[in-house]
Amino acid sequence: MKAIITGVGHFTPEHRLTNRDLEQMVDTSDEWITSRTGIKERRILDKDKGTSYMAVKAAEMLLKQRGISADELDLIILATVTPDMPVPSTAALVQKELNAKNCWGFDLNGGCTGFLYALATGAQFIETGKHQKVLVIGADKMSAILNYQDRNTCVIFGDGAGAVLLEPSERDDTGIEDFILRLEGWGWEYLNVTGGGSLNPATHETVDKKMHYLYQDGKTVFKNAIMGMSDISLKIMKKNNLTSKDINLLIPHQANTRIIDSVAKKLELTEEQVVVNIEGYGNTTAGTIPIAMSEAWQKKMMKSGDWIMLSAFGAGFAWGSMLLRWSID
Ligand code: COA
After folding, report:
1. Catalytic residue from among 131, 224, 253, 256
2. 204 lines ligand 1 (CB under 6 A)
């Protein structure tokens, strides 16, 4: 039994924060942001809404496209670093809004690799025959943890959500084929939010020290992201006897076009083989890959049987690659 993707959906908020807008907020320029990151604008969710709002919208698009009701879901796995609140899980809030009466679910924090972690986890429940319909969501409201006075981070991230449905199939020529995932905790100090957890519970002091905002050592993350994503992608291709010519599409985590370009170069992939949509959304963390996948499917960039490679790198450090054969006609 293999897990196949039978539905996709995504949601991005309407409000656009452009590079020009950011020029008014911090010491930056459209030229710097565009040339260093490839980002032109990002979407920002309303202040009074949380990550679950976007996750529900992405799931609703998916359910409509697949033509099933939320009652049929067995499990919801939600990858996020920006849960609506510490307790309960954001998956619980999504379950309530969708009125998915027959499922269980949980949140998963794999940083920018969260969606790959969640997809790999969900596939196991299908492959064992335990579940028939697993909803996997990647969603983040990064604007909630950004300091809009810190030009190192606030220009990079945005808000958004994407979702896929996993179901079983007996076919050989489609489905999740393989994944390699990694976690190396020495990287924690280069990308983190140190306030508000059990180590440093929220106090006036943690807020004064801005510990509730995202901190990033961009250079270290940049270097490791290129190495991590390209090494692991080459490894999984070799393991499955595939060359760059066999890969129809690489859907990489959208953190920086220079990272994506370097990885594509190391993998010997052409521009046409790589999905890039960072220009309009920035880095939506767990949202980037499922949003890019849903948009690519809408644009008819893949057909059933195509080899798709997913690859991501992020906080932890957590990274990995997945190979799948596309399964929606
Ligand atoms: N506008 C203008 N200047 C900026 C700036 C901004 N928004 N952000 C940083 N700078 C400045 C820096 O302060 C630095 O100035 P200095 O030389 O006077 O100290 C200069 O630009 C160069 O900074 P540097 O960090 O070397 O830039 P970079 O080329 O490494 O690009 C990132 C910075 C953040 C775009 C890049 O490192 C990156 O994309 N990192 C990975 C991000 C990522 O993927 N994160 C998510 C997890 S996957």
Report:
1. 253
2. no
Looking at residues 106-135, what average pLDDT do you find? 98
pTM (2 decimals)?
0.96
- Which residue range forms the structural domain that includes residue 302? 175-325
Shared-domain flag, residues 73 and 189: no
pLDDT classification of 329: cutoffs 50, 70, 90: confident
Question: In Å, how far are 112, 219, 286 from 193, measured between CA atoms?
Answer: 14, 17, 16
- The b-or-e profile of 242-263 (16+ CB within 10 A means b, else e) is bebeebbbbbbbbbbbebbebb
- Which tens digit of pLDDT belongs to each residue from 261-272? 999 999 999 999
Rounded CA separation 132/137 (Å) = 16
CA distance 264 to 258: 10
**Which atom of ligand 1 is found nearest the CA of 151?**
7
* Pair (90, 193) in one structural domain: no
Query: For this structure, is 112 an active site residue?
Result: yes
Q: Please report the beta strands in 234-317, taking only residues with DSSP state E, as ranges in sequence order.
A: 249-252, 307-314
CATH number for position 133: 3.40.47.10
Task: Single out the residue in 169, 196, 213 at which a domain terminates.
Answer: 169
* DSSP characters over 69-97: -GGG--EEEEE-SS-SSSSS-HHHHHHHH
d(CA 46, CA 29) in angstroms, rounded, equals: 25
Active site residue 253: yes
Distance 115 CA to ligand 1 centre (A): 25
Q: Is there a single domain that holds both residue 185 and residue 235?
A: yes
Number of domains in the chain: 2
Catalytic residue among 112, 131, 154, 256: 112
Closest of 115, 166, 110 to residue 137, by C-alpha: 115
Q: Would the CB of 117 count as within 6 Å of ligand 1?
A: no
